[in-house]
Each structure stands twice: as C-alpha cells, then as structure tokens.
Design brief:
By secondary structure, the chain is an all-alpha fold. About 60% of the residues lie in helices and about 0% in strands. The protein starts with a helix and ends in a 7-residue tail after the last helix.
C-alpha cells in the first residue's frame, strides 16, 4: 500500500463498521479536515469526492464555517490531540458529550 491507500482503507473501513457512530460522510469530512491541516492536497481531493459519493452535504466543502457544530467540535479536539495534546481541557470533551451539539 502507498500512504494514501492505507489512510483511505483505515478511514473508510472505520466508517463501514457497525460499531462506528459516525456516518461515512462525516468520516470523509473529518479526513478532509485532517488532510488539509497537513497540506495533503491529493487526499483532500479524494475525500471531497468520497464525501459527495456518500451523499454528504456539499456545503461542507465551502469552508469550516459551513460544518455542523458537532463536527467542528470534534475537529477541534482532533487537532489539539494531533498537535498539542497537553492543551486539551475538560471543556473540549464536554462540548463533545454535553449539550445540543453533543455526540452522546
């Protein structure tokens, strides 16, 4: 496998799992955010196609401000964990599990 195929297999394998609470479109959306943060243009383009193929909201591709709040919250936590994990606070986790935009 090359790097892209491995990442794609991991992302989409997880999205098709019966234990994964995330839809395939949201998995692709999160993959776009992660790939963009590392300036991986090819993966961004492939995941944009995948998001549309999975019937994801095309407005999500217009920019971060067009994402649902719960996806923004998850992307924020993911970015912190990937780059500065010591900055993660209980407030970040609370946004994910409490309130109207929670994943719970």
């Amino acid at each position: 496998y090359n790097h892209y195929n491995l990442i794609h297999k991991l992302i989409m394998g997880q999205s098709n799992s019966t234990v994964n609470p995330l839809s395939p479109a949201i998995c692709s959306c999160l993959a776009i955010i992660a790939a963009a943060s590392f300036k991986c243009g090819y993966i961004v383009q492939e995941q944009e196609k995948e998001l549309l193929h999975m019937k994801g909201n095309p407005d999500w591709l217009r920019g971060f401000e067009f994402l649902p709040p719960k996806v923004k919250n998850l992307a924020e936590v993911n970015a912190i964990l990937a780059h500065l994990p010591w900055l993660l606070k209980t407030e970040h986790i609370e946004k994910l599990v409490k309130g109207p935009d929670s994943w719970s």
